[in-house]
Design goal:
Oligomer: single chain
Largest sheet: 8 strands, mixed
Number of helices: 6
CATH class of one domain: Mainly Beta
Helix content: 10-25%
Structural class: alpha+beta
Strand content: 15-25%
Number of strands: 12
Length: 297
């Protein structure tokens, strides 16, 4: 009878039926995108240089969910559908602006391209202002503006240094996601930080939002106690000490579900919303109520 030749290799494990084994759940951290959001030129008068714009923040690590069929666990596909004729090809769709109920002005890609502004390709610095003169209501999203070609680095550094020495914020415009945005440029480390600014017609004025709040003055003693509480909790801004506790709870839930744990739902805590404001302030000042604890993870 033939014998099997020994090879010194361990026999491969037999496949067993059951659920497929997956790698542990991993969540991404913030990182610079590999592709720029916008590419063009930065121009100050007759000086220009090629640049690229990257998001300074990332939502890659945020928890997001897909819609699944509960029976098959297959991901659901969203198919464009005409209410009269049924599913249609996405590539055949056109853009339309509704001028009245069910009446649209249809625009072709050629017509939309015809109205493109120079700011689709150039950020031209138009004005220099003090940072304090820009109301924080108008600050929007941050971006990193970096040189896009080695040959333009010198002009880029000149503009950066001029901004740093004058202590001014440069204002310009750029078209992003089909919208022209006002942008603020400021020097940061070896580069330039760009913030999109909201236009005036996008900002709801405080007087409109707070118009229903009574103008009556509060009790001076209560204000004094509240001021002392504020002084007790003063400190530096340390963003690493603040975490998204709900996001962390979602991550923990996903890991536990992936491990097959049976979860128990906690009973909701009843809160008494009727309080003696003065007594609550005094207890807070004495430390009986205690400041909310902040996670440092």
């Amino acid at each position: 009878m033939a014998t099997r030749k020994k090879t010194g290799r361990k026999p491969s494990p037999r496949k067993t039926a059951g659920k497929p084994r997956h790698a542990p759940v991993r969540f991404e951290e913030a990182h610079l995108s590999s592709r720029p959001i916008w590419q063009g030129s930065l121009r100050l008068s007759l000086v220009s240089c090629p640049v690229a714009l990257y998001g300074a923040t990332s939502r890659a690590g945020n928890i997001s969910f897909h819609l699944l069929n509960p029976e098959t666990k297959n991901r659901i596909r969203m198919i464009p559908t005409d209410p009269d004729i049924g599913p249609v090809e996405r590539a055949d769709l056109v853009k339309g602006y509704e001028i009245s109920k069910n009446h649209y002005v249809v625009l072709t890609d050629e017509e939309l391209n015809a109205v493109k502004l120079e700011t689709t390709r150039v950020i031209e610095i138009e004005r220099f202002v003090d940072e304090e003169s820009i109301d924080r209501l108008y600050w929007n999203d941050p971006y990193y503006l970096v040189p896009n070609e080695k040959g333009g680095t010198e002009a880029y550094v000149v503009i950066r240094e001029a901004l740093a020495e004058t202590g001014r914020i440069a204002l310009g415009r750029v078209v992003m996601h089909t919208r022209e945005r006002l942008v603020a440029l400021e020097p940061r480390d070896r580069g330039i930080l760009v913030y999109t600014l909201r236009m005036a017609d996008e900002v709801v004025q405080p007087k409109d939002a707070f118009s229903d709040i009574p103008a009556a003055k509060p009790d001076k003693r209560m204000v004094e106690i509240a001021r002392k509480i504020i002084e007790q909790q003063e400190g530096a801004f340390e963003p690493q000490k603040f975490v998204d506790r709900y996001e962390n709870a979602l991550r923990d839930l996903i890991r536990r579900k992936e491990r097959g744990e049976k979860l128990v739902t906690a009973e909701p805590v009843e809160q008494n919303n009727v309080i003696d404001l003065m007594e609550a302030l005094r207890k807070s000042l004495k430390g009986k109520a205690g400041a909310p604890r902040r996670k440092t993870g």
